[in-house]
């Protein structure tokens, strides 16, 4: 039963984040000065973590963020990033490029709550969830097929090294999360995957992992963290055990971590 680690990070701040303008997929705004600082801070925080694969949304703000993270890495500087449109932000249709307040007003007029409301031309939450599930299923099958182990990556670290490099940064030791498989077998990660995506998309993905796959959660995680949008460059880590023909077992190690932003302005 192969196990892999999944580290998911939201992109850094853009000018429109700060101004509460909806970007979605149609407004491809680059990172602001603060956003670049956040990406660099995330990279410094993760510089000793050995990732085997890197995936990102193909929008500018995520591309710039993952490049900013990897360029600080001791091990992954030259890692090729796979850009995947399934990781794009939720599509907001007619309100893209407009203030969030305008979408809220449209939702009120329709008698709906803002997160549930789908503007004309936008995606419903269910459509975003299907897209997130599709990408997650792809990752699980990718690991099951053994592609992750066969591909050339640098460094070719044993699973125990992948685990220990994560454990140095994230609060995994408190629960012995990385010490043993659930069946008590030998430790070892088949892969450690880095993903950079977007706030609303990540909330849909996390909702799928928690509600549908019954992901186990840290005892310290409260309802506020579970329902809030990840801050810019906020980090979440999951361990996934895959088995052919069965739903994956998912364990959340941390959600929306932002320790690396201490001293860096901007949390949107």
Write out key terms for the chains shown.
268 residues; alpha/beta; six-stranded mixed beta sheet; 9 helices; 6 strands; 34% helix; globular
- Chain-averaged pLDDT: 88
**What order do the strands of the largest sheet run in, or round the barrel if closed?**
3-2-4-1-5-6
Proportion of residues in extended strands? 15-25%
How much helix is in the residues? 25-40%
Low-confidence stretches: 150-155, 173-186
Report the C-alpha radius of gyration, rounded: 18 Å
Report the oligomer.
single chain
* DSSP summary, beta strand count: 6
Major β-sheet annotation: 6 strands, mixed
Topology (elements, then pairings):
Elements: E1 3-10, H1 15-18, H2 33-45, E2 53-56, H3 60-70, E3 81-83, H4 100-109, H5 125-144, H6 147-150, H7 159-167, E4 191-197, H8 199-212, H9 223-227, E5 235-243, E6 246-257
Parallel strand pairs: 1-4, 2-3, 2-4
Antiparallel strand pairs: 1-5, 5-6
């Amino acid at each position: 039963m192969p196990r892999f680690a999944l580290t998911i990070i939201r992109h850094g701040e853009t000018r429109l984040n700060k101004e509460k303008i909806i970007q979605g997929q149609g407004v491809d705004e680059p990172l602001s000065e603060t956003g670049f600082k956040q990406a660099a801070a995330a990279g410094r925080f993760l510089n000793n973590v050995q990732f085997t694969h890197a995936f990102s949304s193909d929008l500018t703000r995520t591309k710039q963020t993952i490049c900013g993270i990897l360029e600080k890495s001791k091990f992954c500087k030259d890692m090729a990033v796979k850009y995947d449109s399934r990781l794009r932000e939720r599509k907001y249709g007619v309100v893209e490029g407009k203030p969030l307040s305008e979408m809220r007003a449209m939702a009120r007029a329709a008698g709906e709550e803002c997160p549930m409301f789908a503007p004309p031309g936008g995606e419903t939450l269910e459509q975003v969830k299907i897209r997130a599930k599709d990408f997650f299923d792809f990752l699980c099958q990718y690991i099951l097929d053994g592609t992750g182990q066969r591909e050339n990556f640098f460094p070719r670290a044993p699973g125990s090294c992948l685990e220990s490099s994560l454990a140095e940064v994230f609060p995994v030791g408190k629960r012995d999360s990385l010490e043993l498989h659930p069946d008590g077998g030998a430790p070892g990660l088949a892969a450690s995957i880095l993903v950079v995506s977007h706030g609303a998309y990540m909330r849909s993905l996390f909702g799928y992992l928690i509600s549908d796959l019954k992901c186990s959660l840290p005892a310290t995680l409260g309802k506020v963290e579970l329902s809030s949008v990840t801050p810019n460059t906020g980090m979440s880590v999951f361990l996934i055990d895959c088995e052919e023909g069965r739903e994956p077992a998912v364990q959340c190690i941390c959600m929306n971590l932002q320790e690396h932003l201490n001293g860096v302005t901007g949390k949107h």
